[in-house]
Each structure stands twice: as C-alpha cells, then as structure tokens.
UniProtKB/TrEMBL annotation:
One of its GO terms (molecular function) is ATP binding. This is Histidine--tRNA ligase. The lineage of its organism: Bacteria, Pseudomonadati, Spirochaetota, Spirochaetia, Leptospirales. InterPro entries: aa-tRNA-synth_II (IPR006195), aa-tRNA-synth_II/BPL/LPL (IPR045864), Anticodon-bd (IPR004154), Anticodon-bd_dom_sf (IPR036621), His-tRNA-ligase (IPR015807), HisRS-like_core (IPR041715), HisRS/HisZ (IPR004516), HisRS_anticodon (IPR033656). It is found in: Cytoplasm. Its EC number is 6.1.1.21. The gene is hisS. It comes from Leptospira gomenensis. It catalyses: tRNA(His) + L-histidine + ATP = L-histidyl-tRNA(His) + AMP + diphosphate + H(+). Belongs to the class-II aminoacyl-tRNA synthetase family. GO terms for cellular component: cytoplasm. Keywords: Aminoacyl-tRNA synthetase, ATP-binding, Cytoplasm, Ligase, Nucleotide-binding, Protein biosynthesis.
C-alpha cells in the first residue's frame, strides 16, 4: 500500500481572511469610497511599518492589548518587536518626528492592516483593516465639528438611509466629574467603575449591579445616581450635582452647529459612552448600527491630549476615530448598501480563430490605450466555451473580431445580459463604447 502524502491545509490562519477577486473588489470599493470622502475634507494619506518596537506599544497602548493581544517576538538582531495592533502609536511617533515641519492643523488618514491575538467572532477577527482619521493642533470644538461631520459623511457617501445609524456623543470630563464629584469616588474606584460602565450594555442589569457594588461606598444611594446619569439628556444632565458645566456647554454648542450642518436626527447625547478610559480626555463618540441583527458600535473616537508626550516636550492636542472593515462590511450588508460589483466595465475579447490572435490582441491593446478595460483570451477554444468563461468572470460585453469584421473594418458587440448583438465601426470604437455603453 502506497504511503499517502499529507498535504498542507488550504485554510487561512485562524482569524484571518483570504481575499479572492470577488472579495477584493468589495474591499477595494469600500476603501475607495472611504478614501474619497476623507480626501474631500483636505486630509492626506500616510502609512508606516507593520513592525514596530515592542516598547512603543508598551508605552502607548492599553494594558489588555499589550498583555493579551499583541503579536510580539524577538527578531534575529535580538530586538523585541511587535506587529501593529493599532495605528495610533505609529502616528504619534511620526508626528513627533516631524512636528516642526508640519503645517497646522495636521489632517492625516490611513487604512492600515492591523493584528490582535483575540478570539474571533462576529465583527471581530485577528487581522483587519481600519480607516484612521486624525486632526491635530485645534483646541476648540471646531475640531470635533469636523471629525463628526466626516464620520457622518462617510455613511452618507455609502448611501446609508436615515435611521440606519446613530452618532452617540459625550465628554470624558462629564463622566470624570460625575464619578469624582457626585459619587465621591477615589482614583481606584473611578477606574473600576469606568471599566464596568464601558461593558454595561454587554451584561445583564443584575450582573452589572453585582460587579459594581465592590467599587462603591454606599451602593443603595450611588446606584440610583448612576442610573440617572446614564439616562440623562442634554437638559437633565446639568441637574446632576457637581457635574462639569463647561463640558455640558461644550456639547450643547457642538450639537447646535452640527444640527445647522444637517447632522440632526442621527445625533444623540449619550453619557453612557466611555471608550478608552486611559486614552481619551475630551469629547468622545461612537457610531451605532440600528439594524436589530447587528445592533452594535461600528466605530468611534474622541479627543486625546498630548499624543506626542513620549517623544517631545511640545504639547499637541488631537482628535480622531478608527473605522474597522469587518464591522463596517456587516453594516453595509445588513442595510443592502453593497452595489453590483461585477466586471461590467470590462470588455471580453474571445479568439475567433487561431490565425486572428494577433489582430484581436492589437484591438484589445488599442482599447486599453484609450481607457477601456479589456481582457483577451489566450487560447482559441470553442466560442461557446469562451462565452461561458466571460459569464463566469462577470463580464457583460463581448467583442467579436472575425474574418468578416476585419474585412469590413467593424466589430460585433454582444450584451450577455440582454442577449442583444450589434455591429460597430472599428473607427472611433473606444469613444462609442464610452458614450453608448458607459465603459
């Protein structure tokens, strides 16, 4: 009996994806819409290395990322390095390294590939791509105004209908003043309660109450205040004792100008928004999907002070957000926003006869030189089989160049959707295809 060969698996590494051409078309379309939207606001694209020093993440990333989710190793030069789990540390290093040469405000964006070692699940993988948009050097709420307008414009550019998403906004100083001044919590208590508030929506009310009691001095009195704070609106939040009035005014002014710009029904004040406790220092926000089957946060961000503090004595305030491709793709699918991405803008040229290969190739070359996408078969199989190939590849239009077409200086074009076929002149063919067939 012959020994059976053990073949390698064709499955990708757990928590990652293969992008076959169909998936790649979708990914490229998503990124192109994001990129065009952010570019329209005057932002510039940047990138950095996927490998950074481990020390960079140890200093700039949260404890959970560094201790549980980081892909790190010692390289051949005995340096401890890590695959980037987020873009902010790289961004901080780059901005600090060229700060004096950067005109203010600094408007940058990137769509990096990121890695985190975590349990894969719906909307969460070990490898993903993320749109990062950041604005530096503006201390007034006009920075928040622009960033939130970009966050809203991205969804509108994808055709998101009214009511399909919510932009929930709050301020870290509101939460800080509530925890420290209203509830009279110390630093350890503030940290513990903030972490629990951040996951409150993911656990039951009973579990939340059980877990939060150890951090409170008088749970009977303090828990009702917590519930009142979390359910307050922009009017009632100012009624909470010793709440920070400047933050309330800040959010009210911000909402007034956003509403004047058309961001109205989707805009919500939500003091339950916490986000990174050790990271954000000012206005914070999250964009939520309202689809009952995917009711979750799509992306979010906020203001952070002194991004470059580890690298420079200079101060620089910034604000930004990150939008992951996995959750966003779920949003687009859930609301039916993905268009037909078949290859209908490319013409397909079969080889009618072996002797006509060079003439057919010349025609496709001529089309490409005039801005028409064209694929030419390289073997002269039966025409029916070549047409099947075109259909499988998602093409709509097929151009036929046979002996009779060459003798009459014409081509035949067939629409594989309607079945219609007609003759076109070879002279000016590219312009005809662009004008009459939208190629």
């Amino acid at each position: 009996m012959e020994n059976q060969k053990n073949f390698l698996t064709t499955a990708p590494y757990k928590g990652t994806r293969d992008f076959y051409p169909d998936e790649m078309r979708l990914r490229n379309w998503m990124f192109s819409v994001m990129r065009e939207t952010v570019l329209s606001f005057g932002y510039e694209e940047y990138d950095g290395p996927i490998l950074e020093s481990f020390d960079l993440y140890k200093a700039k990333s949260g404890e959970e990322i560094v201790e549980r989710q980081l892909y790190d190793f010692v390289d051949k030069g005995e340096r401890r390095v890590a695959i980037r789990p987020e873009m902010t540390p790289t961004l901080a290093r780059m901005v600090a390294g060229n700060l004096r040469n950067l005109p203010r405000p600094v408007r940058w964006f990137s769509i990096p590939n990121l890695w985190r070692y975590e349990q894969p699940g719906k909307g969460r993988l070990r490898e993903h791509w993320q749109l990062n948009v950041d604005l530096f050097g503006v201390d007034s709420f006009r920075a928040e105004l622009e960033i939130l307008l970009i966050a809203d414009s991205i969804l509108k550019r994808f055709g998101a209908p009214e009511g399909s998403y919510q932009i929930r906004v709050s301020h870290r100083k509101l939460l800080d003043s509530f925890l420290k001044n209203t509830l009279k919590l110390n630093a350890d208590q503030v940290h513990g309660v903030s972490k629990l508030l951040d996951k409150k929506s993911k656990i039951s009310a009973e579990a939340f109450e059980t877990e939060i009691k150890p951090f409170l001095d008088d749970a009977t009195k303090q828990i009702p205040w917590i519930e009142k704070f979390l359910s307050s609106d922009l009017q009632s939040v100012s009624e909470i004792p010793e709440i920070d009035p400047e933050s309330v005014s800040f959010i009210r002014d911000l909402f007034g100008e956003l509403q004047a710009l058309g961001v109205t029904k989707q805009l919500i004040f939500d003091p339950s928004i916490v986000r990174g406790f050790d990271y954000y220092t000012g206005c914070i926000f999250e964009v939520f999907d309202t689809n009952p089957e995917n009711r979750r946060s799509l992306y979010g961000g906020g203001r952070y002070d002194n991004l470059i503090g580890l690298f420079s004595k200079e101060q620089l305030s910034g604000i930004g957000f990150g939008l992951g491709d996995v959750t966003f793709k779920n949003f687009l699918e859930g609301h039916g926003l993905i268009p037909n991405l078949n290859r209908e803008k490319t013409v397909f040229l079969p080889i009618m006869e072996e002797s006509l290969f060079l003439e057919t190739f010349k025609l496709s070359k001529e089309l490409r030189e005039n801005g028409i996408l064209a694929e030419t078969m390289l073997d002269s199989a039966k025409i029916g089989k070549q047409i099947q190939t075109a259909e499988k590849k998602g093409y709509r239009f097929v151009l036929f160049l046979g002996e009779s077409e060459i003798s009459t200086d014409t081509v035949q074009i067939k629409d594989l959707i309607s079945g219609e076929q007609k003759s076109l002149p070879r002279n000016g063919l590219s312009e005809i295809l662009k004008k009459d067939f939208q190629l």
